[in-house]
Automatic annotation (TrEMBL):
Membrane topology: Multi-pass membrane protein
UniProt KW Cell membrane keyword: yes
UniProt GO cellular component terms: plasma membrane
Compartments, as annotated in UniProt: Cell membrane
Organism: Sinorhizobium sojae CCBAU 05684
InterPro entries: Bact_Polyamine_Transport, MetI-like, MetI-like_sf
Record protein name field: Putrescine transport system permease protein potI
UniProtKB keywords: Cell membrane, Membrane, Plasmid, Transmembrane, Transmembrane helix, Transport
A Pfam family hit: BPD_transp_1
Family to which the UniProt record says this protein belongs: Belongs to the binding-protein-dependent transport system permease family. CysTW subfamily.
Gene3D superfamilies assigned: MetI-like
Positions of transmembrane segments: 12-36, 75-94, 106-129, 149-166, 187-208, 239-265
Length: 273
């Protein structure tokens, strides 16, 4: 392939990628732009001035909606899911390194929830809680519903990680006199730490914006996605767009910080090796 053909192919692929990014982030950019409406601005274009009015209004007492409390619930729930996701996925990855009776059935049972409609799982968990006389709440039934979505991804990631993990490192550590716990702590854990952080990020982001599996399991108090959805029917100011912009920036900040930690860990491993 000559240079002109490669250049033409590059521009075609670049144009295709640009269209993909525009399709992916076009609606989001509209929300970000409209969140900077002036004090008298509405929910549609054109902009009626440019200001930070609606961002300031976001942190004031609202007649409708409870941004702060719903954000704290979503954030707390995301952290609970993250910790559980990392611990269970790690233990599952270690367990599945060796074949055991029922391992195949357990694997398919773990990932089965990915193919069941989310609203059905949410409805089922809510009904079960009610049948046992328990009140659904975001920290109990909602927590369980989120795990049915996040945990299979975490397990699949760890299975892929350990599938590529060479046992030679552990054998070398044991030959040098390390105990099984020392081998895990000083050899295995540092090597899989970036993957564990990725599992945690996966769990947090999937939980933070989960709507369908929270709908019937959150109980009396809404998480942030439910609160935003409820506000779309009764909020008529760009404060809703300001909320969308702030939560989006928060999500991207979490992702960037996680990527920075992973790169730092890999750089330290490269120096040690």
């Amino acid at each position: 392939m000559n240079r002109d053909a490669r250049t033409k192919e590059f521009y075609i692929l670049a144009a295709f990628f640009a269209l993909f990014v525009l399709f992916l982030y076009g609606p989001l950019s509209a929300i970000v732009i409209l969140s900077f409406q002036g004090p008298d601005g509405g929910l549609t274009f054109p902009l009626n001035g440019v200001s930070l009015h609606w961002f300031y209004n976001l942190f004031e007492t609202q007649a409708v909606g409870d941004f702060g409390a719903s954000f704290r619930r979503s954030f707390t729930l995301g952290l609970m899911v993250t910790v559980t996701n990392v611990v269970v996925a790690l233990l599952a990855g270690l367990a599945f390194r060796n074949r055991f009776r029922g391992s195949t059935a357990l694997f398919y049972l773990t990932v089965a929830s990915l193919v069941v409609p989310s609203i059905i799982i949410s409805l089922g968990i809510g009904v079960v809680f009610q049948q046992f006389g328990l009140r659904p709440a975001w920290y109990s039934s909602g927590f369980g519903a989120h795990l049915t979505w996040t945990l299979p991804f975490g397990v699949l990631i760890m299975l892929a990680v350990f599938n590529r993990f060479s046992p030679a490192y552990e054998e070398a550590a044991r030959d040098l006199g390390a105990t099984p716990w020392q081998t895990f702590r000083h050899v295995v854990l540092p090597m899989i730490a970036p993957s564990l952080i990725g599992v945690g990020l996966f769990g947090f982001t999937l939980s933070y914006d989960e709507f369908a599996r929270t709908l019937m399991t959150s109980g009396t108090y809404n998480t942030l996605p439910l609160e935003i959805y409820a506000m779309t029917t009764n909020v008529t100011t760009p404060v809703l767009y300001a909320l969308g912009t702030v939560t989006t920036l928060f999500s991207f900040t979490v992702i960037l910080l996680t990527v920075a930690v992973i790169l730092l860990l890999r750089r330290r491993q490269a120096k040690l090796s």
